[in-house]
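mind reviewing this stuff:

——
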Amino acid sequence: MKPLHFEAIYDISVRLGGAPLYPGDPIYCRQMVSKIESGDRFNLSKVTFSAHAGTHLDSPAHFLSRGKAIDEYPPQRFILPAHVLTAKDSRCIKPSDLKGVAANPGDALLFKTDNSRRGLLKKTSFSEDYVFLAPETAERCVELGISLAGIDYMSVDRFGDPSYPAHKMLLENDILILEGINLEDISPGSYLLLCLPLKLEGEAAPVRAVLMR
């Protein structure tokens, strides 16, 4: 078999423990159980974190009592043609930002917003003033038949909105949500997205997300 060749591979993940923490989520913590420098035979660490820490995928189980969990999806749901789109509005992603996108059913849409320009994912403090996905834009994603939507901050919904309209609209239609992706150095266009999550029984899991072309 000939090895796959890509012109470029871009890591759009953030390091666990190095990204803003959504208010109320458990803090990422890594503790050394044994250390070579202390005379132990090997290094061994224990980590605790939210399933929504850093770059992560939300599954329907996040908001639906009988929704599918991350470990119920086959690997092919995490390897997708992806389209990076630029959101023009500094407050929210609007349906007009999807105008002309050549997405096929099953593709992924990744939204690059002012969050990337402002470097919000590089700051350890959480910003409540981030660009989010407008509910009507989530509806448009459903109409397009995409299978994954991604955003360059820690939530697709406006901070403080108790109804979580974008989450619910997407997850009720089996559209996975990729949050916390670093698109600062990514140009708009078409790519291959690889975002395999940890095989956890639960509503979400951290991923190492990369774009290839």
